[in-house]
Amino acid sequence: MNEQIENNFSYHAPKPGQPEIYHEIREKAKELAYLIDQKAPGSREKSLAMTNLEQAVFWTNAAIARN
Question: What is the pLDDT of residue 3?
Fold first, then answer.
């Protein structure tokens, strides 16, 4: 059995305090998303910036949940 695979593909119920951390991260990312939306012209690059910001939030939350 590979422990990393087991961990990465398992449900991780939030531990005390984690929902508040997830909320804080989402709020900061949302703030940056609005700044990007206001300042960057509509373009492929802007779309990629938004996608990568979403990915950053996702992977940050995964790091918290998995570890």
Answer: 96
> What's the burial of 55, exposed, middle or buried (CB within 10 Å: 0-12/13-18/19+)?
exposed
Gap between the Cα atoms of 63 and 67, Å rounded = 6
Give the chain's count of helices (H) and strands (E).
3, 0
Residue 20 tokens read as 């508040």
Secondary structure (3-state) at 34: helix
Compute the distance between CA of residue 34 and CA of residue 15 in angstroms, rounded to an integer.
Answer: 30
Q: Report the C-alpha gap between 5 and 35 in whole angstroms.
A: 37
Q: Give mean pLDDT in consecutive 10-residue pieces for the chain, a chain of 67 residues.
A: 96 97 98 98 98 98 97
